[in-house]
């Protein structure tokens, strides 16, 4: 099912509809500031497992989407240096690797010590997480080694995945450039993948 949500003043009614799907173990596809992405509630072990099977990936490949830096600090260990980097670059097209805290459910983490952190500059993504009240586990619709035209168009994404997910949020035409991935777990920030974001 395709649901139109505008980035400027996203409809509360539509957001509620999305959150209800997430709270009932659903997976949604939503727009970000880079590529469209799959998302499910961090607290739904069933949805996380389904997403893992759908993407044929280990949960170690998934990142978490947060509404703001304060929420990141609840689930990850953020020292002063990391906080300054996050503050300068987020919201934006980055995935930052940070040490996970004990608040991440074991099922979602699979004993992982680090977590990929996203705060997209797309207002729809942040509004969904804010309304949900917890982070979303996320994975790009696009594969790292494959640029497919349908991955930028929500109508084509819906044709491809509509039967496998609870709903697809139409936030307009997306991008096909992935995020820049930065590891903040060492002494110095290390760029693991050059993408859309330029580190400040």
For the termini, the CA-CA separation is: 38 Å
Using the CA coordinates, give the radius of gyration.
Answer: 15 Å
Strand portion: 15-25%
Helix content: 25-40%
Secondary structural class = alpha/beta
Overall geometry comes to globular
Strand order of the largest sheet: 1-8-2-3-7-4-6-5-9-10
- Note the main sheet: 10 strands, mixed
User: What are the segments in which pLDDT stays under 50 over at least 5 consecutive residues?
Assistant: none
- Count every helix, treating DSSP H or I runs of 4 or more residues as helices: 7
**Topology pattern, helix = H, strand = E:** EHEEHEHHEHEHEHEEE
The count of strands amounts to 10
Report mean pLDDT, rounded to a whole number: 91
Secondary structure elements and their pairing?
Layout: E1 2-4, H1 12-23, E2 28-30, E3 37-41, H2 45-55, E4 63-65, H3 69-75, H4 80-89, E5 94-99, H5 106-109, E6 114-118, H6 123-132, E7 136-140, H7 154-161, E8 167-170, E9 180-183, E10 190-193
Parallel strand pairs: 1-8, 2-8, 4-6, 5-9
Antiparallel strand pairs: 2-3, 3-7, 4-7, 5-6, 9-10
Structure description:
The model has no long low-confidence stretch (mean pLDDT 91). The chain has helices spanning 12-23, 45-55, 69-75, 80-89, 106-109, 123-132, 154-161; strands at residues 2-4, 28-30, 37-41, 63-65, 94-99, 114-118, 136-140, 167-170, 180-183, 190-193. By secondary structure, it is α/β, with parallel strands linked by helices. The protein is built from seven helices and ten strands. It has a ten-stranded mixed beta sheet, sandwiched between helices.
């Amino acid at each position: 099912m395709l649901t139109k949500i505008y980035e400027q003043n996203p409809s509360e009614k539509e957001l509620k509809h999305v959150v209800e799907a997430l709270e009932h173990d659903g997976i949604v596809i939503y727009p970000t500031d880079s590529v469209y992405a799959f998302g499910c509630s961090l607290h739904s072990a069933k949805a996380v497992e389904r997403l893992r099977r759908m993407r044929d990936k280990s949960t170690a490949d998934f990142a978490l989407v947060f509404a703001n830096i304060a929420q990141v600090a609840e689930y990850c260990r953020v020292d002063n240096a990391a906080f300054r980097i996050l503050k300068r670059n987020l919201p934006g097209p980055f995935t930052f690797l940070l040490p996970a805290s004990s608040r991440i459910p074991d099922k979602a983490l699979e004993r992982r010590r680090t977590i990929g952190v996203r705060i997209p500059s797309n207002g729809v993504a942040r509004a969904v997480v804010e309304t949900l009240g917890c982070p979303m586990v996320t994975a790009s619709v696009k594969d790292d080694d494959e640029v497919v035209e349908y991955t930028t168009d929500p109508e084509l994404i819906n044709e491809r995945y509509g039967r496998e997910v609870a709903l697809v949020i139409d936030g307009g035409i997306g991008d096909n450039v992935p995020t820049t991935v930065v590891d903040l777990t060492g002494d110095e920030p290390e760029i693991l993948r050059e993408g859309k974001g330029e580190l400040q």
